[in-house]
User: What shape does this take?
Amino acid sequence: MTTPPNSVRVQLASALLDLVVHVPQSAERARDDADLRAHTIARKAARQASMVAATLSLPPGWMGWLTVLPEMISVWKIQAQMVADIAALHGQQTHLGKEQMLYCLFRHVSAQLFRDFAVRAGERVVVRSSTMKALEALALQISGKLLGSALRKGASRWIPLVGAVGVGAYAYYDTLQVAKNAQHLFQIQSPNGARNMSQ
Assistant: This one.
């Protein structure tokens, strides 16, 4: 028996909210070479995400469908830690909340969904505080966008090895997009942001 798409969408939304409510701590500290260090952290996280995604997508056929949600959640956790590290590098960890985490993790999925949450003020991007109800609605919209990706990932489980390579490559690319979102958000807001952006 297959899980109804709406049920999967609600599960994805719930997993997103659980992830962003508990923002991870970072051992990183603000530093002058934040951009260089952020690049290193992003590449390491992308490799980890790729390896985890590829490994979890190895089971073939219907067993592969069971690993789709765990794979996505595992990759998001790696990405969330990366976002926390990038925020800390720019001295912005205290400004990293649920809204900023959602923005960094999923803005590249659909910028349109964030139009009410993030506004441009000159060169800065300001992510507004939101009620839990508004975040739940946003998470549900994001999960709707991700559902198509989840179904494609599930379908790739029918092609052992080749599917795993594709899923791993996508996780690598996706993680670099998350890093780009985080760099853009926190680099501009950091004290040296204007200087860093012009370099």
